[in-house]
Structures are given as C-alpha cells and as structure tokens.
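Structure representation.

___
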Amino acid sequence: MIVLIHGPDASLARAEVANRLAALDPDGFNTTTLDGRDVSLSAVIAAVGSVGFFAAPRVVVVENLLSRSSRGAGGTLAVDDARPAVGGLDLSPLVGTVPNQNVLILVDPELASIPASVKRLMPPDVTIVSSAPPRGRQLVDHVVVAAREGGG
C-alpha cells in the first residue's frame, strides 16, 4: 500500500501521518522514518521491502522525497512537473517494490499537490491525502477542536 500525503498545511499533514501510524503500528516497533532530502532511493527500497520485525505491516514514512522532483535549481517550486524522476532517480523501482503487507507513506507538506508525473507512476490503489486547511465555518470548528485538544 502506498499513501501520498501533501500540504499545504504542515500541521495537518503531520496529524494525518500520526493518525495513520496509530492505526497501522500503534507501538511504533515496525515503523521507520526517513528524511527524503538526504536518503537514497535504494535505502527507501530496502526499508520498504524488508519484513516487519514483530509483525506485519512494516510502515516506512519518507518525508520530503516528492518535493525533490519539483524543485528547480534555485530551490523554488518548478513549473514543469513532467519529469518522472526524484533527485535524478526514477521512482518506478520504488513503486514496484512495496509488498502488499507493507505500507509506504510519502509525506510532503511543501507540495500543494502531487506532481502529475508521480501520480502516473502510482498503482491504482494509491491513497492521496490533501492536508488543505478547512475554510469558513469548518475552519472555526477546526480551531476550536484544536484548542480543546491542546488544553486551551
């Protein structure tokens, strides 16, 4: 299973990851978190392809990997998202190595949307979650709930 979580709200993206981890691996024994800005694609493939230590599923969370494919040389978001590569590497080997019992979560709060080239590589059962903040009355309700949960 592959889950893509994108921004633009970083706190909502983190909350979505936390909720999924609580459901998939509540003890955290089978979860690995990697920094996509520095990790090699082969390291991600190795992590997601390995068997869970205690039980299935093995969950691999990779933060900020997708934004590497969307950045221009100056570090700003590029307009052209027709490139299928991340950091010069093709993502298709990663997509093809996720075993059915494992979960790969690619979270990128910097991206307002998933690049079309990445969407094309994903299997049909991919889950895409937008962490866009609510608007209007839902925003007020969201702030009230967040304040209560935070002890306010």
